[in-house]
């Protein structure tokens, strides 16, 4: 039995796991390892034993979350698939299907080129056995999607990691259309930022929006951050340090977090954690 799901599902499970681990309040390293192992066992029950394969589909998953999945769902084989509607399957576990023909094309206006170091980067072009012949009654889009020699323009910016004696490894950076260009000329991937934010136990949902004048994100706090506001003297357990460390600086500054004792965290700027936690808006 195969259980397919997009990265957003696995990000949520990982966030819940980190929250549960943080609430154990275990200081001893050996006990912490035992508690973590027990939590992994409990979370593994989310996928029934009759399921022997997990398929990650729809988008690129964070290596951190993927590592958690391998530790948690040991009874399953985890397959990270990359496919396109117009071409079918292209790669599995970041390695190209042997039947796929591919090449990269530089996107110099976004600073992704075949000359990039240590590995070439650019838009992925592919040919597969399941290639479509074109969009129905839309010759304009068909001409834009296919090259003169029959390659399909995937619209994905990738990095092609070629290591001696190993098959080529394709790392998907983001969709070509997903990038925002900042006022300083730098291109930013909102999907990459989204993945960083959603791995935090403090964030339930986030929408990252960009326009010519403003780049910001609306962050909805989770029940975990609301629970923090109920701690005596507005202190936060030290176990949340690992979670706080993955937050972008804007959120950390908004919360004014600093350590004051081996067991608690509180504000470092002469202010206390607010009793009512509202949505946080930060610039990225």
From TrEMBL:
Keywords: ATP-binding, Fatty acid metabolism, Ligase, Lipid metabolism, Nucleotide-binding. Residues 2-135 form the AMP-dependent synthetase/ligase domain. GO terms for molecular function: ATP binding; long-chain fatty acid-CoA ligase activity. Transmembrane segments: none annotated. GO terms for cellular component: endoplasmic reticulum; membrane. It is an enzyme of class 6 (ligase). InterPro entries: AMP-dep_synth/lig_dom, ANL_N_sf. Its EC number is 6.2.1.3. Coiled coil: none annotated. This is long-chain-fatty-acid--CoA ligase. It comes from Rotaria sordida. The lineage of its organism: Eukaryota, Metazoa, Spiralia, Gnathifera, Rotifera.
